Amino acid sequence: MNSRSLKKYFPIFVLPTLIAFIIAFVIPFVMGIYLSFCKFNTIRDATFVGIKNYVYILTKDQNFINALLRTTKFTIISVILINVGAFALALLLTKKIPGTNIFRTIFFMPNLIGGLVLGFIWREILNTVFLKTTGRPMTYTGADYGFWGLLVVMCWQLMGYMMIIYIAGIQNIPEDVLEAAKIDGATPFQILYKITIPLVMPSVTICLFLTISNSFKLYDQNYALNGISPKTNLVALDIYNTFYNGSSPYSEGRAQAKAVIFFLIVACITFAQLRLTRSKEVES
To answer: Are 206 and 165 in contact (CB under 8 A)?
Structure first.
């Protein structure tokens, strides 16, 4: 089939997917932005109130500000731990040592477990540990324990997934480049810093994007592990709590406004990260 025929039938193949994308994403997204400027219980009774929801969130809603700061702290720590740990595992499991395939499978398996199931499993594990050590379950020992427990769950789930991506990047490095560096007398650290990391930057770009976006948007593990508590809520769970458990007639609109603010923050951060890391990529 020539290019002219492809252009002729291109709209036919694209149209169903485009229609589904508009119905499932574009229209709800635009309606969501509009509803963030409204007071409503359902979309049929929405009343436009201007920027009142945004003003309240940014000046009076301390729970949202705390959740945003907590989410930022959680994202920074989890992104560093997950990527450093995954990269270290990838370096180790690309060495010619027995059983590497088995270890790769074991480390990747937590990613196959659903977020809610994973959260409930770890809640039982951590509650058992805290009951034996402090006499109280983790959920009643303070917000800090819930935060660090959630961090453990996040790292345990995603580290194996990121490891696979880093392994693919390391295995794509030409062997002759590494051999030439060794012949020239480069130390293992110099090879890592000057060759391996620059040539693995496409994998770094992907892994940073996935870990940043997943950390910011984390909801299910947060809900399963800590429940709905203002002391342990990340932003996604705070939005849910505002929408479904808020007592104010403006709760739904404020939750929608929080979602819009959250989207803009995540979009800006991930876009800046993609621009920064892609500029560091080199061709092998």
So the answer is: yes
Q: Which residues contact 113 (CB under 8 A, 6 or more apart)?
A: 121, 157
pTM for the whole structure: 0.86
Predicted confidence (pLDDT) per residue in 156-203, tens digit: 989 999 999 999 999 888 888 888 888 888 888 888 888 888 889 999
- Residue 232 three-state SS: coil
Q: Which long-range contacts (CB under 8 A, 24 or more apart) does 114-118 make?
A: 114/220, 115/157, 115/219, 115/220, 115/221, 115/224, 116/220, 116/221, 116/223, 116/224, 117/224, 118/153, 118/157, 118/221, 118/224
Q: 214 vs 56, 79, 157, CA distance in Å?
A: 27, 10, 11
Query: Helix (H, G, I), strand (E, B), or coil: what is residue 151?
Result: helix
Tokens, residue 92: 């180790």
Q: Report residue 48: phi and psi, to 5°.
A: -70, 130
CB contact at 8 A, 177 and 284: yes
Instruction: Give the phi and the psi of residue 39 in degrees, each rounded to 5.
Output: -105, 125
The residues, ordered by sequence, that sit 6+ positions from 169 with a Cβ below 8 Å of its Cβ are 90, 199, 200, 202, 203, 204
| Residue 199 in tokens | 């040539």
> Are 118 and 224 in contact, with CB atoms under 8 Å apart?
yes
HEC secondary structure over 90-114: HHHHCCCCCCHHHHHHHHHHHHHCC
Q: Transcribe 38-65 into DSSP letters.
A: EE-SSGGG-EE-TTHHHHHHHHT-HHHH
Q: Where are the alpha helices (DSSP H) in the chain?
A: 3-21, 27-35, 52-59, 62-93, 100-108, 115-133, 143-171, 175-183, 188-191, 197-199, 201-216, 220-226, 235-245, 251-279
Q: How many CB atoms lie within 10 A of CB 131?
A: 13
